Amino acid sequence: MIIGISLISFFIMHLAPGDITTTEASFNPKASAESRQKLRELYSLDKPVIVQYGLWMKRMATLDFGTSFASHQRPVFWQTQDKDGNVTLGMIQEALPITLLINVLSLILIITIALPLGVISALRQNQLADRGITLFVFIGFAIPSFWLALMLMYWTGVQHTWLPISGLESMGHENMPWLAQMFDTLKHLTLPVFISGITGLAGISLFARNGMLEVLHQDYITTARAKGLSENRVVYGHALRNALLPLITILGLSIPGLIGGSVIAESIFAIPGMGKLFYDAVTMRDFPVIMGILTIGALLTLVGNLFADVAYAWADPRVRRGVAQ
Amino acid sequence: MIINIAKHKLVQAKLAKLMLIAFSALLVSACGESSNNQTSNIDYSKSYPAENGGTLIEAMTADPSGLIAMTAGESAASAIAGSIFNSLLKYDKNLDLAGELAESWDVSNDQKTITFHLKPNLKWADNAPLTSDDVLFTWQKVTDDNTRTPYGSDYKLVAKAEAPDANTFRVTYAAPYAPALSTWAGLHILPKHLLKDQDINTTAFARNPVGSSYYKLERWKNGQFIKLTRNANSTQGQAKIDNLLSRIIPDKAAQFLELSADNIDQMSLNPIQYARVLPARPVLNKNVALYKELGSGYTYLGFNLKRKPFDDVRVRQAINYAINKQEIIDGVLLGLGEPVASPYKPGTRWSNPSLQPYPYDPNKAKALLKEAGFVCCDSENYLTRDDKRFSFEILTTNKERETSAVLIQRRLKEVGIQVNIRMLEWASFLGRFIEPREFDAIVLGWGLGLDPDQYSIWHSSQQGAKQFNFIGYSNPKVDQLLEAGRLELDLDKRQKIYHEFSKILLEDSPIVYLSAGYGLTAVHKRVQGISNPAPPAGIGHNTQEWYIPNQYARTEINAN
Amino acid sequence: MMKKVLSNPLAIIGFAIIASIMLLALVAPFIAPYDPDAIDVKAILLSPSTSHIMGTDGLGRDVFSRMLYGARISLMVGFVAVGIATAIGIVLGAIAGFYRGWVDTVIMRIVDVMLSIPSFFLILAVIAFLSPSIWNIMIVIGLTSWMGVTRLVRAEFLSLRNREFVLAAQVLGAKDARLIFTHLLPNSLTPIIVSSILGIASAVLLESGLSFLGMGVQAPQASWGNILTDGKEYIQFAWWLSLFPGLAILLTVLGYNLLGDGLRDAYNPRSNQH
Q1: Residues B284 and B333 in one domain
Q2: Is C77 within 8 Å of C223 (Cβ atoms)?
Q3: Are residues B453 and B536 in the same domain?
Q4: pLDDT tens per residue, range A17-37
Q5: Distant-in-sequence, close-in-space partners of B451: CB < 8 Å, separation ≥ 6
Q6: Residues in A touching B75 (Cβ below 8 Å)
Q7: CA-closest candidate to residue B452, choices B510, B483, B495
Q8: What is the rounded average pLDDT for all residues in chain A?
Q9: How far apart, in whole angstroms, are the C-alpha atoms of residue C64 and residue B41?
């Protein structure tokens, strides 16, 4: 699997005409051809492709992606320490927590809104509420997110100074007491989280709706009803739990989408997360960073799937018992 | 059942309508001018005497890759590094060379040796003395083969560099090299005592630099902001503004919103924002001052001179006459640019004031084309020569240039030339077309150099695959002038050489100068002391004299 | 099933939206009042009026005409990209689901690998490296979004494979190809169509996202994505530049989703019981 990922990402990079020495910024008569050639040698870009792939595999095995081409001082993945004790933080090390934080917050937002919507939809199938909810979540999905983002930035940041427009911290953040700092960060995250949340509503709420519908027609629900349990007990006690099981898998699978989908939001809100990092690396032909992000992203997905499987097993008595046998 | 559906539909339609209304309400409210902006009440039009203090917040689109300019290389880095480091020399506001760390310099009679005399008692921000040893060390680093810098070649021409005493730095060239002085205005001097045991390519110093100029780095939060604070040991005197905060906001639309909300003081604008958007926003317009300065580059249409019919000077001139440059300036830059007739900044010493751009004259163009053997016309009204239609392809790389190409296309169609346009991503443009010379014509830009030497762009020897004379220009007279210009250190004689060079270049018309756009900047009016109109070096030449009167300063949260 | 769809007002609305937008795209050359690429430096950023009903852009081009032509490009990106994805998905899914065994394992491994790489990153990287032409965009979106269809087709095949009518046909000596094309594929067509319709919606959105990053369909060719991106810097000033393309994208994506969802609901046997 890892080999597959490495092959794909390596193949992509060698589609690329040009490298770091041929970006527009370095097309400067002051930068002579010889100097640029020298740079290629220092980056091993002059070696045959197969040798470069070997070098790359070695790095991947140790999760040491070296330092960025575009920013020679920064390690791609994790911090390094020089002999004087100066620590340089890794690029992914800094970007990943930010992206994860936003995604976790927006997942929480999505689930708290989408689940009730989905359940209501299912209970009122084909009635007005169902149609209204469907329309609403689809509009959320269909709005070009950067357009909505700019509108909201203008409305909440310029017209009314309710929320900050971009960035992660206000000026003077470092001098605030920690509670104020947290509040400040949360204020900065409100819009990005909202934007990524609204686009994600549709998937989860429809999933919950269809899952509920399916479960509601199962025999054991009929049995539960026949036993004379109250409708609430039936719906929330029996049906919902079972309808939600597959959701765990869906959440596990959605990790790459969440990481990948962050490019636009991070660019517009000036948030230095994984998406922004990747986009910059692509435009700069910063191969180590591109490779590092693709690999780490894939690893995260694997971990996410693993978690989902474990969680599923834990939540689903059938699987649990199956494991025990 | 049927009734039910109809009812559903009705409700549905109502719901959709409601949502549309709610949505447009949001839109309309979002488009209106703000009324309850607290900052709009302050009158920023008074001017106050200069005083120290305050923070200037500016927006940048990208995080610098490091603050050692020789290894970082991009403009984001050099802008910030320029506030931290000094060079031996600098360009003053009229773009003439002046001393920065150097108090004075002498050129030997054979023009091969330059001796720099450093100002006395220079100090680094960490209090260590700054001496000629540091300068020597910097030269050694930039010429070291292990240093990942694309800028080493100029400095490798130095045959011998020495630091005879703490205040003297001397370089000897193998042959006179006139651009030498200007190269010393572009080399940030680095502290030897902090870097001597470090690998300059990977040192943490690049992210935590110690310099000698007005500011020192206080905090760099990757991808978020860089905060500089005044350096008490500055070698150039004290700046007035306490802190420079550069916020990294990649999206220009978001930057503009931040400016509207008064969260940043300074950003660069595009022509439409400058000419249309700001004037239409009264509150913002009242609080923000607009500056335009000579841009640092020009856009041109370049021909592949190795291809027919561009080997014929009459054809090139004809195309030059057929293009309406003012239309391009008006259309692409909304009038915020100038026509140029030489590859130098208008108004500076190197720009030949007697040269005028080719006027728009389609009749003359037609006459020249006829002279070159083109006849009118084929079935689609295009010129032909030897039964072949005059048709070529323009390659270009960005939207603004592409728009220029579209305007060119239309004008050339009027004189009977068919133009196709292809837009390419930079790396493939370079690798697949420029390097193998697989192009007819290009719309591209060059910088308007401060040193007049443009040997690498125009000399006939510079036509190798990765070299910069990719249009294949070759003129023995120009070669000779370019060679002479490199050897001549006397400014007046040198000026003459380059005026002559520009004149020949214009006549030869290997490229058509299209336009030189202005650099457009918005700065909040709380910042005062900015030269307006901008001198040739731009408004940034005296940022150390900018100040923010206490009455206008933002409220800041300070450490207790 | 048709009856079921017809009783869903949202699906009908979706269908109506898509039909009208397709119609507009088809007749664009006949109703566009201006040449969509004609630059007019004297008519820059005019607000909507009777002569330019959607105003003009930063180069004086008529936004309404560009919207009409942009509809063709945006819809084409959606169709072709999804066409490619669906074709790959059907072929791989059919092979995996029909032959099972190691072929299935290999194909599903590839699917897993592709699914684990953030696809937007992949698209971004490939397009940046290959230069963003409209064909590259369609192909790359297609090549990175076939995994869902593959899984779908495979699952359908696996469940249909042992049904009586398939086994009967096999006993009667039908060849593999015949089995696949006349028995299995037609019976799994509905979910494929539903997923394609939803896929088109995503592709249209994806193109606008790529445009925002400067990697969408390139000017002067108009797409809704790049008209919208052009307008974003003047969102407070020239509202018409972002409102119309924004609404167009919104409505189109909404339309496809409503239709796709309606179809899914209709063919889904579970919801029929209600």
Answers
A1: no
A2: yes
A3: no
A4: 556 565 555 555 555 566 666
A5: B179, B182, B183
A6: 25
A7: B495
A8: 77
A9: 40
Placement of tokens 């930063």 in the chain: C58
Q: What is the pTM of this model?
A: 0.82
Q: Report the residue of chain B nearest C8, measured CA to CA.
A: B5
Task: Using the CB atoms, write b or e for B463-496: b if 16+ within 10 Å.
Answer: beeebbbbbbbbbeebbebbebbbebbeeeebbb
Tally of domains within chain B: 3
CA C106 to each of CA A4, C112, C146: distance values in angstroms, whole numbers, following the listed order? 11, 10, 16
Please list every residue in chain A whose beta carbon sits closer than 8 Å to the beta carbon of residue C9. Answer: 131
pLDDT top residue among A148 and C180 = A148
Domain CATH for B134: 3.90.76.10
- B470 close to B463: Cβ distance less than 8 angstroms: yes
CB-closest option in B1, B403, B425 to C132 = B425
For residue B153, which residues of chain A lie inside 8 Å, CB to CB?
32, 34-35
Residue C273 CB coordination number (10 Å): 8
Residue B33 to residues B261, B275, C234, Cα–Cα distance (Å) = 12, 18, 14
* Short-list B281, B380, B214, CA closest to B35: B281
Which chains sit next to B, with 3 or more Cβ pairs under 8 A?
A, C
The pLDDT tens digits of the residues spanning A58-108 come to 776 777 777 777 666 677 777 777 666 777 778 888 888 888 888 888 888
- pLDDT for the residue C268: 66
Query: C118 in a domain, yes or no?
Result: yes
Mutate to test the interface with B, among C233, C254, C274 (most CBs of B within 10 A): C233
HSE-CB at B510 with a 13 A cutoff on CA atoms is 23
State the smallest CA–CA distance between residue A318 and chain C in angstroms: 22
Which structure tokens are listed for C92? 């791989």
Residue type, C114: M
HEC per residue, B302-347: EECCCCCCCCCHHHHHHHHHHCCHHHHHHHHHCCCEECCCCCECCC
Strand bridging mode B215-221 / B225-230: antiparallel
Which residues on neighbouring strands pair with residue B289, listed in sequence order? B523
B350 and B449 together in one domain:
yes
The whole-number pLDDT of residue B169 equals 94
Which structural domain, as residue segments, surrounds residue B271?
29-61+214-294+526-552
Q: Are the C-beta atoms of B530 and B291 separated by less than 8 Å? A: yes
Contact B68, B81 (CB under 8 A): yes
Mean pLDDT of all residues in A167-188: 83
pLDDT, residue B515, reads 92
Q: Which of A211, A166, A168 is nearest to A186 (CA)?
A: A168
Residue B556: what pLDDT? Answer: 66
Per the domain annotation, does C87 fall within a domain? yes
Which phi and psi (to 5°) does residue C163 adopt? -75, 155
Number of domains in chain C: 1
B interface test, pick of A79, A158, A161 with most B CB neighbours within 10 Å? A158
User: Which domain does C228 fall in, by range?
Assistant: 2-28+63-267
Enumerate residue ranges in chain B where pLDDT < 70.
Answer: 1-41, 73-76, 556-560
**Contact (Cβ atoms closer than 8 angstroms) between residue B395 and residue B442:** yes
